[in-house]
Amino acid sequence: MKVIDSDAHVVETERTWDFIPSSLQHLRPIVVNQPDATGSSKPYWLIDGKIRGTVRQPIGKRDEWDPGRVSPDMAAVSQASGRKVDTPDASKHMEDVGARLRHMDELGIDYQMLYPTIFLRQLTDLPETRLALAQGYNRWLADIWRQSEGRLKWACVLPLGQMDEALTELRWAVKHGACGVFMRGIEEEGILTDSYFFPLYDEMSKLDVAVTVHIGNGNPEMERLLNHGAGGSPFSSMRLASVAACHQWILAGIPEQFPKLRIGFVEAAAQWIPYLVNDLVRRYPARRGRVPVPGELLRENRVWVTCQTDDDIAYLVRYAGEDNLMIGTDYGHTDQSSEIEALRIFQEEGQVSAAIASKILDNNPSAFYGF
Fold first, then answer.
1. What values do phi and psi take at 315, rounded to 5?
2. pLDDT at 86
3. 246-272 burial, b if ≥16 CB within 10 A, otherwise e?
4. Which of 6, 185, 292, 346 has its CA 20 to 30 A from that of 267?
């Protein structure tokens, strides 16, 4: 049995943008230092003259979890569970691909599916800059994939606002190892069921590439609205966007329009699946003219979802079926979804039978990502 980490990350550094083609290098992000709320100087990305988030710079070869580098909520969770949530800097920044592979070996992971960090939010609304960033990122990941001899799979980032450029970039990325297209539940161009994206889905179907919907939000106004105030968090602004996108995708009949297209929802956990399935069962007769079988809804629509070790996976199987759940570590991040030893914990806790565990760790992600 292979062990596949279905949700891992790279953390972009200045080297990432060295891969932007020379004709677009004038658009590369640059690092600027500005004081934060405490007055301490911090590095930020400057893109098109605007600050676009902090730079996660390598800060030394510390392998152990450091509570000073994560949020207070995450620190409390980590202290209570005793788990490590940090990863070696050389690995998450891909300064040393060999070190990443050795750490995977230590964790018992055969393959990782890599997602970006900086692209979870909108970076710029300028088409030329979006193209430059996508090309730089994709060429960096293609180089990582090559160095890993195929163990580090990846989802490409596309300049979706320019569909012709997006299709060209998609074809290049697939030739260089990409097995998914990174998208967010809400994109800058609209929701995923909008007909604007149909040329992309058609080409992806021909190339046998999956839609990989990672938590994120491409609409800055909506993200700010849902993320502000004492109760604001990525749960509202990012995770729920993925849940809504899944519901819309199935209800709109996109799987029937593109019968070869696969879609997955990554890092939103999976406890929402029963809620989603029950609601769709109620809406199907009026919208679709039939009543679906709850436990077969994901399978028949070619929808996969990553779960977490604190999900009630045995219960979820009743609604998701055995063939459409995956699991990941969120390797490289230090947030609520990070659980660096998730795959080992999942195997040891025995929430489900060995046969189902094997599907979640191997068969299901292999089928989804097309390994």
1. -70, -40
2. 58
3. bbebbbeebbeebeebbbbbbbbbbeb
4. 292
User: Which residues on neighbouring strands pair with residue 121, listed in sequence order?
Assistant: 217
How does pLDDT run across 175-199, given as a tens digit for each residue?
999 999 999 999 999 999 999 999 9
What is the rounded distance in angstroms from the CA atom of residue 165 to the CA atom of residue 163?
Answer: 5
What DSSP string runs through 298-312? Answer: HHHTTEEEEE-TTS-
C-alpha–C-alpha distance, residues 72 and 67, integer Å: 8
Q: Please list the ranges in the chain whose pLDDT falls under 70.
A: 57-86, 334-338
Pairing state between β 303-307 and 190-191: unpaired
Query: What local confidence, expressed as pLDDT, does residue 78 receive?
Result: 39
Residues recorded for the chain? 371
Dihedral of alpha carbons 139, 141, 147, 150, sign: negative
C-alpha–C-alpha distance, residues 141 and 10, integer Å: 9
What pLDDT, on the 0 to 100 scale, is given for residue 70? 36
3-state secondary structure of 126: coil
CATH number of 4-26+61-369: 3.20.20.140
